[in-house]
Amino acid sequence: MAAFALNPAHYCRSCLLRLSPPLQRRSFTNTPSRRKHGNLPKFTPTSSPDLDSLLSTFRNNIFLPSRLVKEQKKLIYSPKNRRMLLKSDEPVSVLIGDEVLDLQPLNRLRDEPKTRASVAKVLALMKEGRDWVNLPGFLEGLKTARRKLRGWQVEKMVRRANECGRQGVVLECLRRVEGTAVGLWEVAVVRECMIGAVLKAQMDGWGSKGVEEGANFAMQVWDMLWDERHRVARPPEKDPKLRPEIVGVVVEMLAAKAVKVEDGKGDSKELKKHVERLVGVWKYADLEVDEGGLYDANAKLMMWAPVWHGMKLARTVLGHDSQLGGELGKRIQKDLDPLLKKAKEVVAANVPEGGERRGLKMYEQLLSAGLS
Prior knowledge:
Elements: H1 13-19, E1 26-29, H2 32-35, H3 49-66, H4 70-77, H5 82-85, E2 92-96, E3 99-102, H6 108-111, H7 115-125, H8 129-132, H9 135-144, H10 151-163, H11 167-175, H12 177-180, H13 187-203, H14 208-224, H15 244-260, H16 269-280, H17 294-318, H18 323-350, H19 358-367
Helix pairs in contact: 3-7, 3-9, 7-10, 10-13, 11-14, 13-14, 13-15, 14-15, 15-16, 15-17, 17-18, 17-19
């Protein structure tokens, strides 16, 4: 295909046709700096026509324009070029990666979906596995288009994926961090990732299969925390590796695996290592509960119930009378039992009839898990 870099605003139609190749297609080849991003994300059919339509809109109206050079952007956004671009017998095309794409006129205000609302809608529409496989490519398109997600949006995205049982997609996004911009830089995001390990086990009724998958997921997330791509300079209290509520979930899943999969007879070295780390970082624990704050109390239940459960399980595996077992027992009795009691009372007193709170639900489910 011949390469042209024409600016249609500088040429009349007859000149454009004369300068175009013999075929009825005018071609604008992308510059090397634009080609470095490779192909545009390609989305596979989903379970929802609305989701298919929204993904297509993002691809055509946001991701494609973000790969164009200045002259090409002027071409699609200038109203005076609209009629020329809409002529079906003389399409204007660009080469992006190995894909030839026809340019269409666009209006930024009318045709570009708003990032915040539209990303929330995409996530809400994702339900089945075939929907979620499109998420990494969608995120890569957003990053290339400089539509950056805020930390709380990533947190909600991870929560939604975990609740739908799509922890594997979360891992894929984390592995492709350079492209997706989904990293383990913020404590809140890492917390949600780790909750995914607990949910993996809960969805299987804490059976051996779910526990093993949850433990493997927790360890993969933990290992990624040491990957340079997921590390940023933080004060100790904001370093996910030093947060007891995060280390505590690793302890919970390793202890549950020892009980359910290894019948309490497995190698406890890995568990001991993380229990020792948990005891060492306990000074960073936020153990205060706002007695008048439903949100804070519910968040504390969600944060600390898995740790409490994990510490009880770890004592079962390591021995209540062992040194580490004794340390954990003190923390449970002195810190976590009072905290969870107070938080539960605050949440229960403020939940409307028929309502449900995520943290309270987690706590009650762990109470009935019957492992410790």
